[in-house]
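hey so u asked for the seq, here:
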Amino acid sequence: MSEAPIETIPHSAREKLLKERYIMAIADQGDLLDGLGQKLLVIVMSVAGLYATALRLLPEKEAAAISLAWLLVTFGYWLLAMGCILYGIFPRKWPVNPHIMRRDPACQSGELGIEDFFTHSANHKRRWLLGAIGLFFAGVLTAAFTIF
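ran it, structure tokens below
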């Protein structure tokens, strides 16, 4: 094996820019999911409000035919969806060691590295927002059953 140093070339301006954009994309995922959560919360609240208003505008005879159980299930799904959204977007304290970039997978401590923090935070938000989307659509489907 030779002892000669390995020759390298510096990164081009394009490669530096791509690397910076990649790092920014990782760091910005949490903010993007926060924005999505806020918009989703507005949608869930708007649909629930419009549905409640539409029910109030029904003639008394038709309103009496609607099953209370279906209404409770429908609004229950929407309430759970709002809870998931709020839990997902509220700030959470993560145990982060600022001296490491990535946690060693063999390490048993609960501390995250800096890159792990961004990944775990985004995954946490993504899971709760996907659950909220599922609950919201379940509420929309059950709302359809109250009409027929």
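Residues 13-147 form one domain. The first helix runs from residue 13 to 57.
lmk if thats what u needed
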